[in-house]
Amino acid sequence: MQDLIWLLPTFPLLGFLALVLTGGSLPRKIVAVIGAGSVGLSFLSAALIAAQFLASGEDYFVKEVWVWMAIGEFTPGFNFYLDGLSLVMMLIITGVGFLIHLYSTGFMVDDPAYSRFFAYMNLFVAAMLMLVLGDNLVLLYLGWEGVGLCSYLLIGFWYENPDNGYAARKAFVVTRVGDTAMAIGLFLLFTQLGTLNIQDMLGAAQQQWAMGSPLAIAAALLLLGGAVGKSAQLPLQTWLPDAMVGPTPISALIHAATMVTAGVYLVARTHVLFELAPTVQMLVAFVGLATLLMAGFTAMTQRDIKRILAYSTISQIGYMFLALGAGAWSAAVFHLMTHAFFKALLFLAAGTVILSLHHEHDIFKMGGKRKQLPVAFWSFIIGSAALAALPFTSGFYSKDEILLAALAVEGPGLLLWIGGVIGAFFTGIYSFRLVFVVFFGDSKAHHEAKEEASLSMAVPLIVLMVLALLGGWIQVPLDAVFSQGAGHEEEHVSLLVHGFMIAAPLMGIGISYLFYMSKVFDVDKLMTNRVANSLHRFWFSGWGMDALYQWIFVNPFLYLARINRSDLIDGFYALLVSITRTAHLMLARTQTGYLGWYALSMAAGLVVIITLGVML
Amino acid sequence: MQSIPIEHGLILAGILFALGLVGVLTRRNIVFVLMSLEVMLNASGLAFVVASARWGHADGQVMFLMILTLAAAEVAVGLGLIIQMYRKFKTVDIDVLSEMKG
Question: Which of A14, A357, A588, B71 sits 20 to 30 Å CA-CA off B78?
Answer without folding.
Answer: A588
